[in-house]
Specification:
The chain is of the alpha/beta class. Helices cover 32% and strands 27% of the residues. It is built from three helices and eight strands. The chain has helices at residues 2-40, 81-84, 97-105; strands spanning 45-50, 60-63, 68-75, 89-91, 119-122, 131-137, 142-147, 158-163. The chain is globular and about 35 Å long. The structure holds copper (II) ion (CU). The site of copper (II) ion has 6 residues, from loops.
Length: 164
């Protein structure tokens, strides 16, 4: 028994020692990557993913006011656009979201974007495996709503678009 305990103890010490240099290397690499990311990526380069579970992967997007926003929407699922279509629609301030989404639902001919001037920007309606990139000027500072206008999605697929 004593031997086993001694063995285990030695093993723990050995494992502990072995991990030391690895850990340092890892954290160094992480710092380096983070620095590179901040240089290359601007706050206004936004990527948002959507999937077959009818979800966006983020519920808050932050951008700077008065600068161009480049937004990429990915549909990472496999289901076709007719059944699990997703888009990104940034709705103007003051628009009634429920009313807008209701009208969007009936606008199949225009990719579920209702007639009128109620949006700042929107992507194409995507099916699984597709992507779309749009660029637009960020509006005045404030909190706006973005959503997916595919029928039945907006109550879950929506979030805050915060302009600072
Ligand atoms: Cu959707």
């Amino acid at each position: 028994m004593k031997k086993i305990i001694t063995f285990l103890f030695t093993a723990i010490i050995l494992v502990g020692c072995k991990n030391e240099p690895k850990k340092e290397k890892f954290s160094y690499k992480r710092v380096q990557e983070a620095t590179e990311n901040t240089i290359v990526k601007s706050m206004n380069d936004v990527t948002i993913n959507s999937n077959d579970q009818m979800l966006f992967d983020r519920s808050i997007i932050r951008v700077k006011s008065g600068e161009t926003v480049t937004l990429k929407l990915n549909h990472t699922g496999k289901i076709a656009k007719e059944f699990m279509g997703h888009n990104f629609v940034l709705v103007k301030e003051g628009v009634d979201i429920d009313d807008f989404a209701q009208r969007a639902m009936n606008a199949k001919e225009t990719d579920y974007i209702p007639e009128g001037d109620e949006t700042y920007a929107y992507t194409k309606m995507l099916g699984g495996g597709e992507s779309d990139i749009i660029t637009f000027m960020s509006p005045e500072p404030g909190t706006y709503t973005y959503l997916c206008t595919f029928p039945g999605h907006y109550q879950i697929m929506r979030g805050d678009f915060i302009v600072e």
